[in-house]
Give the backbone structure.
Amino acid sequence: MSLQYYPIETGRLVLRRFTLDDAPAMHAYVSLPEVARYMMWEPLSLEETRARLERWLGSEGDAEEGDNLSFAITLKGSGELVGDCGLGFRNKAARQAEIGFSLNPAHQGKGYATEAVGEMLRLGFERCNRHRIYARCDARNDGSWRLMERLGMRREAHFREHALFKGGWDDEFYYAMLEDEWRAQQEGAA
């Protein structure tokens, strides 16, 4: 297990490694129906939250296929846990990774998710040598796909009614960015 990726500091956040002590703060948002609405899981109990953290801590590695890097999104001044984000390594030969994230609704609308997910792109391209990073979301999750567009990711696919999800047909968007697109974006911002 490699700790070389932790922590990451941004202007307002510290993205750090989770600990099992984070279970109550994480449970405060993963137990909410509005957070679970577009996720593959239902609202979690405290025990399920602890089990999730244990699984995340056990799957972290050195950016090999199947590894995941999970980050607690915390406020720089107070250390308060406001969400989570991560990078999952999906295809070693093609150097691909997938981004995931969720945020406590009490802290949404402040740009924290954009800041954190932007750092996942930076981590993936600069430190983990990824060629392509993608993310997916339920097509009804406006906040999620708008965040991806704000970061310069492009919509690659719209899968219509591709799966039964929580009692109905699910439409899903796939967004992605290539390393050269990210580098051009960084040069343009400089």
Remarks:
- The chain has one domain: 8-189.
- The chain has a mean pLDDT of 93.
- Residues 8-189 form a domain with the Aminopeptidase fold (CATH 3.40.630.30).
